[in-house]
Amino acid sequence: MTAISTILLAKLNIGIPMYVQLYDTTLRDGSQGEGVNFSLQDKLLITKKLDEMGFDYIEGGYPLSNEKDFEYFQQVQSLSLKHAKVCAFGMTRRRGVEAKDDTGMQALTSSKAPVCTVVGKTSDLHVTEVLRVDLEENIAMIRDSLSYLKSEGREVLYDAEHFFDGFIANPEYALSTVRAAQEAGADMVVCCDTNGGTLPEQIAEILAQVQKELSIPLGIHCHNDCDVAVANSLAGVDAGAKQVQGTINGIGERCGNADLVSVAANLSLKKEGYEVLTAGAGLTHLTELSRYVYEMANMNFRVNQAFVGRSAFAHKGGMHVHAVNRIAHSYEHINPETVGNERRILVSELSGRSNIVALTTKFKLDSDKELMGTILEQVQELESQGYQFEAAEASFDLLVKKLAKTYEPKFQRIHYRVNVETARQENPLTEATVKVKIAGGGEVRHEVGEGDGPVNALDTALRKALIPYYPGLEEMTLVDYKVRVINSAEGTAASVRVVIESKDDQDVWSTIGVSENIIEASWLALVDAIEYKLFKDDGELQG
Amino acid sequence: MTAISTILLAKLNIGIPMYVQLYDTTLRDGSQGEGVNFSLQDKLLITKKLDEMGFDYIEGGYPLSNEKDFEYFQQVQSLSLKHAKVCAFGMTRRRGVEAKDDTGMQALTSSKAPVCTVVGKTSDLHVTEVLRVDLEENIAMIRDSLSYLKSEGREVLYDAEHFFDGFIANPEYALSTVRAAQEAGADMVVCCDTNGGTLPEQIAEILAQVQKELSIPLGIHCHNDCDVAVANSLAGVDAGAKQVQGTINGIGERCGNADLVSVAANLSLKKEGYEVLTAGAGLTHLTELSRYVYEMANMNFRVNQAFVGRSAFAHKGGMHVHAVNRIAHSYEHINPETVGNERRILVSELSGRSNIVALTTKFKLDSDKELMGTILEQVQELESQGYQFEAAEASFDLLVKKLAKTYEPKFQRIHYRVNVETARQENPLTEATVKVKIAGGGEVRHEVGEGDGPVNALDTALRKALIPYYPGLEEMTLVDYKVRVINSAEGTAASVRVVIESKDDQDVWSTIGVSENIIEASWLALVDAIEYKLFKDDGELQG
Predict the structure, then answer these.
(1) Whose CA is closest to A288, among A307, A304, A271, A275?
(2) Contact A270 B199 (CB under 8 A)
(3) Residue B197: its chain A contacts at CB < 8 A?
């Protein structure tokens, strides 16, 4: 234990581990994100997953806002949750109405949610200019709403909107709003950086001041508009917050909310003196949870996402790979498995032998020194032509099979032809013909297909030719198609790299083709994608 | 000025604005990101853009590692940069060699770069276990390498790898490595959080201690593995770092580097007492820069990216939209225009006017309110189809001409046909025919061309048809050709965006085409590229 680390540990009050509650609002604040839209079923499934992982609070929605959210609160009661408390979100009562008569309040109580999270205004600007009520009425709205919900026997969390902006502009008024919340019986005051414009040092300094004023616990709710929502949440915890509100993968309006994936991992693995997720094992499901939520939200994964991204523990530089093989943690800040992620070694122009060995272990070929050498040479030769296997692991596996002489083609091309023709400004007509010989003395098949573009037409014709022999191809679909010009100095005469991403019910795989001709490059990638699928189905990829 | 804000401003030493250098390593560390691969031309174009915006240092590559990086340093000398210094990256000399005989050192000096950035080991673990040299030899490697480069008259920055991990494990040794760097004449020591495992409070505390030991300025280089790279960089600056190293959009190995877009915006807009980007106006080009780099790297934008994302100022929640209509800053932490971004109200996709006006001033049309409205509508319509004008200013200029009714086509297409045919594994034969009518009652020309690919064949045929009338096209060459699938959910049937970059002796310009058919999309971009060249030569682009 050296000087510095003791200083740090001391500062982080080691020895008194503090349990930090995680409050997930993926289903409410998260669903405000652009393009995010959860079905009722999605919401129930995500609720179950969050509960299994030990999240403490799950904000299910805003019962007043729509039928779906209202339904959610009815159906969620039949999920027997192990640990999490379900929260209904709402606003303080409207001006000049009694709380019990306010439709928002009624929606909260009839939701039957054990916890109600009520948002109210902190910033005098918002009260007078946006809400257009006087400052005293706003205080009354907070007090009445919370005391009514307490009288209905709910746990009540008060979300102080624009807390930090409001406090900086008018600390006295901001404090009077949260004092009112405490007097009305709120169980917690959550300070919200609604616009995401606050920096960590401000969060720390302001929360410390609020703590002096209140006896009930504080929570922190941050947005990522300055790209520091996670740091802000951690600063809030260091300043005494007992709860962090955020969303899975940080989805949410504008730049999103604090990413609870990163917050949980940092609090439990990187900082001393804190505990999260009662089900400690929860942490090892973070990667799975992150991808699950992306799937549900129908969003693409962020490959470079901290802790859980596909690239989070991917090593490309030959020097790094070399080092990681000697000592894993030399270029890894944590063991990927602690968050349910895995290490990946990428082949690239910077590759050395160590990348190849690491990648071929699954074929149990890595002991074959000579083969390793051949593969390395071949990879470097192909990469000098523009191949890039880091983005095409399936093509790399096929290459290994070929060089290991365990490769039997499933079909052979005799020829193909693509024709694109147009008149005036109309859309072109595209037709492709494919002639292939099925392996193992199969017949010669000659088929024609149309498509929106040449690759689509080739794909159509090729499937027509192969599916009678390989019905498994029915399950395979193309997910993405990327094209890149390599030695672009040559302009349109340069060679072209095509990467195709395909999937079936089990897997996603990428293949690559390089040629001066974009059609030929696409054909090569397409054929690899199909062959990979066929080898996979025949269990021929374990080597 | 209220209590709290004065405290904060005081703390942030208001009144003594400190200039913070921005060191961009997009072209070196950024290119280690998964799937990132810049062509030589991309690297030169990005260098130019960064220089125009006032970045202080641009790390162009690692001359020893590959031919492309070596070439870069030769060609970059002919770009007359206004402000930025170009840096070559390398490592300390190998064990037991004299610096002057070390191939890495020689690559650095022969790169002719005015600045050399040398990385060396700080962590005793890395020295003894990974590098496997003894601790003294590592110190000698640092000292010899830096003093050799100084004797060659270079500015030398020392990147202390794994500085924070090394310091926590063995502060004495860590400090001895950077002391050696200072004694050898390094102009700056840059403390690197190579594994991205350090948190802001540790960065602050450790940097403060290092400052006491050294008299030369410190820099900070962070990675995002804990999702706090931006906060770490800001903490480093508060602790006295005079330089922040990072990449545009935070691209880089694993979870990437600190995003200089967020760092620049936070230092200049959110924190008091700091200045960045000598060309102050640089900040208003951040959004453009971010998207430009994504295009060059052929990556998709992150819609929710802080400051510059398409959603960064997009309002979805009805309450928010309502409030924003009353007072813009009620849900916006800054004015979007300060970073060249724009507000979007998602329910009514209302956006862009300011950009349009900015982009049309050169045509002296911006006073024409009605035309501005028409252009705005048209741009929104086209962008909803997948057009992206940030990366295709030439196509935008042509669009403006069309809508301003100052556009006279130089030729009209009657039809084209492309045929790609192949046998066995041979390269396909590609033939294109083009039939066009030259403007102003010119003849109908029907030409045929061959090419390496369909676009090259079309280009050849089209030039054959046009050059007799427009000999200026002889000077025009295609520099780059990029393809992106837009709604990739559709696989090969999705629509395709083609961006073509062309140049002549004076300019480089980009044009775009979108279609479900890659051939048609390429044709559209190709025709724009040619027409732009012809209008340019006729001086018809000043409006």
Answers:
(1) A307
(2) yes
(3) 270, 333-334
The ranges of chain A annotated as CATH 3.20.20.70 are: 18-297
Cα distances from B16 to residues B22, B59, B212, in angstroms, run 19, 29, 21
With CA atoms as reference, report the closest residue to B288 among B336, B247, B339, B245.
B339
Rg (CA), chain A: 29
Q: Which two tokens stand for residue B53?
A: 């915006």
Sign of CA dihedral A129, A132, A137, A139: negative
A331 touches chain B (CB under 8 A): yes
CA distances from A182 to A120, A148, A161, B369 (A): 13, 13, 15, 53
The SS3 call for residue A411 is strand
Nearest CA in chain A to B11: A201
Min Cα–Cα distance to chain A from B258, Å: 10
Computed from CA positions of residues B7, B9, B11, B15, in that sequence, does the dihedral angle turn out positive or negative? Answer: negative
**Torsion angle in degrees (nearest 10) through CA of B101, B102, B104, B106:** -10
Preferred mutation among B132, B227, B485 to probe A, highest tally of A CBs within 10 A: B227
Residues written for chain A: 543
Architecture of domain B18-297: Alpha-Beta Barrel (3.20)
Nearest CA in chain B to A343: B254
Count the residues in chain B.
543
With cut-offs at 50, 70 and 90, classify the pLDDT of residue A187.
very high
Other Cβ atoms closer than 10 A to B152? 14
Distances (CA, A) of B528 to A218, B398, B411, B514: 59, 7, 11, 12
| B227: pLDDT strictly greater than 50 | yes
Separation of alpha carbons A389 and A125, rounded Å: 56
pLDDT digits (tens, 9 = 90+) for B389-422: 766 889 988 998 999 888 889 999 999 999 999 8
Whether residue A224 lies within 8 A of chain B, CB to CB, comes out as yes
- Please state, rounded to an integer, the average pLDDT across all residues of chain B: 88
Q: How far, in Å, CA of A152 to CA of B212, rounded?
A: 60
Query: Is residue B524 within a helix (H) or strand (E), and if so which, with residue range?
Result: helix B518-537
β-sheet bridge partners, residue B69: none
Closest CA to A173 of B408, B311, B86, B3: B3
* Cβ proximity of A119 and A89 under 8 Å: yes
The closest CB to that of A428, out of B255, B271, B517, belongs to B517
Please answer yes or no on whether A419 and B423 come within 8 Å at the CB atom.
no
Higher pLDDT: B300 or B133? It is B133
- Nearest alpha carbon to residue A65 among B316, B81, B9: B316
pLDDT score for B316: 60
Q: How far is B26 from chain A (nearest CA, A)?
A: 15
Please give the Cα distance from B77 to A136 (Å, whole number). Answer: 67
Question: Which pLDDT belongs to residue B351?
Answer: 39
Looking at residue A32, its pLDDT comes to 83
Chain A contact present for B255, CB below 8 A: yes
Residue from A248, A268, A266, A267 nearest A258 by CA: A248
CB A218 within 8 Å of CB A207: yes
Task: Give the C-alpha separation, B30 to B44, whole Å.
Answer: 15
Indicate the pTM of the whole model.
0.75
- What DSSP string runs through B239-271? TT-SEEEEBGGG--STT-B-BHHHHHHIIIIIS
Please give the Cα distance from A391 to A384 (Å, whole number).
Answer: 15
pLDDT beyond 50 at B3: no
Angle subtended at Cα B518 by Cα B512 and Cα B519, rounded to the nearest 5 degrees: 95
The span from the CA of B438 to the CA of B410, in Å, is 6
